[in-house]
Design a protein that fits this description.
- The structure is a single chain.
- The chain has 313 residues and is an all-alpha fold.
- It folds into 2 domains: 1-152, no CATH class; 153-313, no CATH class.
- Helix content is 74%, strand content 0%.
- It has helices at 3-37, 40-46, 63-93, 101-123, 129-145, 161-195, 208-242, 250-270, 277-304.
- Helix 4 (101-123) crosses helix 6 (161-195) and helix 6 crosses helix 9.
- The radius of gyration is 21 Å and the shape is flat.
Length: 313
């Protein structure tokens, strides 16, 4: 099989993964719509601990729970398609599949969906699926909009540091994606709890305090990986490639800003006792700075001529 054929297969797998993620997301939307229409008895049967499905023996699960099962299965399929896309892209280019924004986004989304599926299996967090898929769709759409044909790396990237630097950043980004999704869901659930109007849809999710803990754990895992990837191995690689450790490049600046915001978030949680809404908003600011670094800096470079040595990434 030629490299062009492998590249084409990768493109088809990416497109297929995007479509399957869309369908899975709309299954969660159907779940929420069905939950609004369930009778109180059916909702009580369907709402298990933490949003898990708890069906009485020989009873047919309510429609909302059936949609959850379909959505989880489709999410697993989407993860496999995107993993396949990354693998075939790597075979087509004969290198690691994260040499540009397109590859970074596709592979990072595959990692995020894989992490989510593992946690569904281990911790029954399928209640988070709709929000996770919405974030993944957003990242995939941005990645596809920056599609780059399969090809060799620019010379500055031809070093083993690419595996360490980009690999750790991609895993960190996946954690921030899931943590950001949990923060959004927390704010929605907490607002409903404060108003005392938790309806049949939001009652399928855990208590807001538990969602807040999930968000903290994901971000706490992502932060040291981001520190290692962006602020330790990144400068080392920059020194080897360009002869300097730090040049105040827009990507470097925004990577530092992202680090500062998440450092402030974790510091506030651990030492100042920040929990709940203030912490969630700060976590979302951190995720917004990551999106700015990942996508907007490149857009500014291409559309407005802002200089960056990282426009390929």
């Amino acid at each position: 099989m030629t490299t062009d054929q492998l590249a084409q297969i990768s493109n088809y797998l990416t497109g297929g993964g995007f479509v399957v993620v869309c369908i899975a997301f709309f299954c969660h939307v159907a779940e929420w719509i069905s939950a609004r229409r369930q009778t109180p008895a059916a909702a009580e049967v369907g709402a298990g601990a933490g949003g898990a499905v708890a069906v009485a023996p020989q009873e047919v699960p309510p429609p909302a729970d059936r949609f959850v099962g379909i959505a989880v299965s489709l999410t697993g399929l989407a993860a496999l398609l995107l993993i396949g896309s990354s693998v075939t892209r790597g075979l087509a280019t004969q290198r690691a599949p994260f040499g540009n924004m397109y590859e970074f986004g596709v592979t990072g989304t595959a990692i995020a969906l894989s992490v989510y599926m593992i946690l569904v299996w281990r911790a029954k967090i399928q209640w988070l699926g709709g929000v996770v898929l919405a974030v993944c769709l957003f990242i995939l759409a941005m990645s596809i909009s920056t599609y780059t044909p399969a090809g060799p790396l620019v010379p500055a990237l031809n070093t083993f540091w690419k595996y360490i630097h980009v690999g750790s950043i991609m895993v960190a980004a996946a954690m921030f994606m899931v943590g950001g999704a949990a923060s959004v869901l927390y704010l929605i659930k907490q607002r409903a709890e404060d108003r005392g109007s938790v309806g049949p849809v939001l009652s399928r999710f855990p208590a807001a305090a538990r969602i807040d803990q999930f968000a903290f754990r994901f971000n706490a895992v992502g932060f040291p990986l981001w520190t290692f990837g962006a602020l330790i191995t990144g400068p080392i690689w920059a020194h080897l490639a360009w002869g300097r450790y730090w040049g105040w490049d827009p990507k470097e600046v925004w990577a530092l800003i992202t680090w500062i915001v998440y450092a402030g978030y974790l510091h506030a949680r651990v030492t100042a006792g920040w929990k709940g809404k203030r912490a969630a908003y700060l976590a979302l600011v951190g995720f917004a700075t990551f999106i700015f670094s990942y996508y907007v800096v490149n857009l500014m470079a291409s559309e407005f001529g802002v200089f960056s040595q990282h426009t390929y990434a």
